């Protein structure tokens, strides 16, 4: 199984902003500044509308090259796609799985994770989910153990 973190260019930019501000994030930290990531996502797409698509294509090429000649089945997960990413993901053969979560549960988890600011779920980078027609939906409003069980079952069914 391979995972592509689609927003990696945004996370690198976030780290650079914090470094420039004299408050670097530690490498192992995955805390997020949701407001900054919303800002970076919209502005980086204005500069280069294909910024995340280009990263995705580069990562899939790297994975395909690494797997060349293998007889094993490989599952590639794009873990943090947004509705704007759906067209090129589908052109690449990905099947969308929408992970839903109650907004209060998501906020609580972000606070527990130590996120620096919370992103706006109504920001333009987050819009369009209601128009998606995913292959599968998985609810993540329960316990993390329940979510783990549901996603493991989904991955097992895909890997067959």
Largest sheet: 2 strands, parallel
In DSSP terms (H or I, runs of 4 or more residues), the helix count works out at: 6
Q: Going across the major beta sheet, what is the strand order? A: 1-2
Elements, N to C (H/E): EHHHEHEHEH
Summary tags:
9% strand, globular, 4 strands
Q: Helix and strand layout, with pairings?
A:
Layout: E1 2-4, H1 8-20, H2 34-47, H3 51-67, E2 76-78, H4 86-91, E3 97-100, H5 103-113, E4 136-139, H6 144-159
Parallel strand pairs: 1-2, 3-4
Structure description:
Helix content is 48%, strand content 9%. The protein is built from six helices and four strands; from the N terminus they run βαααβαβαβα. α1 packs across α2. The radius of gyration is 17 Å and the shape is globular. The model has no long low-confidence stretch (mean pLDDT 83).
């Amino acid at each position: 199984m391979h995972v592509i973190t689609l927003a990696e260019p945004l996370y690198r930019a976030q780290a650079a902003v914090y470094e420039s501000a004299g408050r670097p994030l530690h490498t192992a930290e995955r805390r997020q500044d949701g407001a900054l990531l919303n800002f970076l996502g919209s502005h980086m797409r204005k500069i280069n509308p294909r910024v995340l698509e280009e990263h995705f294509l580069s990562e899939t090429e790297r994975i395909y090259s690494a797997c060349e000649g293998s007889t094993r089945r490989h599952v590639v997960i794009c873990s943090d796609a947004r509705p704007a990413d759906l067209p090129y993901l589908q052109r690449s053969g990905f099947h969308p799985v929408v992970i839903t979560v109650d907004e209060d549960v998501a906020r609580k988890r972000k606070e527990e994770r130590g996120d620096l600011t919370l992103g706006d779920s109504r920001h333009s980078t987050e819009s369009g989910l209601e128009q998606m027609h995913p292959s599968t939906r998985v609810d993540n409003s329960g316990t993390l153990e329940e979510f783990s069980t549901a996603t493991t079952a989904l991955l097992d069914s895909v890997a067959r």
